[in-house]
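Two quick folds needed for the group meeting slides. Do the first one here.
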Amino acid sequence: MSRITVLVMTALLFCAPGQSKEKHLPTGEMSNEGVHVAATVIDSDQLKEIFGSDFANLYSVIEVTIAPRNGKPVEIRLDDFLLRSGQTGEHTGPLMAAQIGGQGALVVKRGDPPRSKTGFGGGFGGIMMGGGAMGAPDTTDRSKVEMKESAEKDPLLAMLKRKILTGKTITEPVTGLLFFPLEKAKPKHLALVYTTPSGKIRTEFK
């Protein structure tokens, strides 16, 4: 290989438009005869780009695209979605926009987490813990949940309402965000479960 060829190849490598810097966001897919769902875990950087805030990393945020199949309409309900952490055993449903921003937002003040006989800790408000055979957890709630009191409208609320998936009946694909109160959960440990009229479907993220 001539020296000129080496120089040209090196220049092309360094001039490539940021391909090596592109970030891979964990994705997953699930489907049955009535619906197909594509899901992507949104990271802190993307949240800052969209909302100007990463919400102090209090949430695991999933972007979902829901597409009806076989010409059948799909009724979207937030209660049909569940996010599980295989690492901690926690599982929770998504929040509405008003629970994240605005005067109705929940502010969670952490105390000492509940402890089980196995030393397992947890206890974010609204999160359910997986059971285990090693011992019953201490269910004493040491967290205090307060309603945020504010005379001014949270500037994030309008954006959240536009971006968060809302309940409705669809005949065409729609895309929206789901905010789950799972703090700093690693995507590789997450599984999204969606209950449809034809049964539950599930995906993990890679």
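Then this one, please, same format:
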Amino acid sequence: MLLTNADLDHVLGLFLLREGAPLHIYATQAVFSVLETTLGLTRVLNSMCGTVCHEPPMDKLKPLLSSGNKGAGLSYRAIELPGQPPRFAPGSSGPHSVAYEFRDEQTGGKLLVAPDVAGLNEPFSKALAQADAVLFDGTFWAGDELSAIKPGAPSAEEIGHMTIQKESLPLLAGLRARQRIYIHINNTNPVLALGSAERRQVEAAGVVVGYDGLEFEL
């Protein structure tokens, strides 16, 4: 399991896997620290299935190895992104949000997975430009999406997400990647509605709204 951050919707599912084999968990030290001090993640799991913790490389691609060598043929690295720690762990330091870049060593194809993007930086922008497939943060269509439903709710920017409408759709539309796919889509996002004007804008730009069972080749 590769963790991009310590947000609850990214990590709580790990507790549901406690009855199986030891879990190989990949995350930055900052994320591990938050999860251990606030949720006792490895302490709980080590009393049941056990864990094997890995800190991903961030300087260059290295082989991805896991139980049963299921990662054979893949190289990977984490790319630090702008972002704040979770609201339940204010003040903690370190890389709290990362994207993952993968390379298929047989084909040379590159995949970039980034479900939690507050903004761009040079390493991430370079990886976007070189990727053959991009899975990108599609949480919100607009910045005021939550407050339109619940007055006083934080904006997309305050939560740490680029919006599709003004930021990520023009970005993805300009990439050379053959596959450009939105993931991590909030249930308030109108792109989930087939036939909506927002969905049509996304599809017209050549970007796919992710769905269960979606497959593609690098």
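Slide caption for protein two: DSSP finds seven helices and nine strands in the chain.
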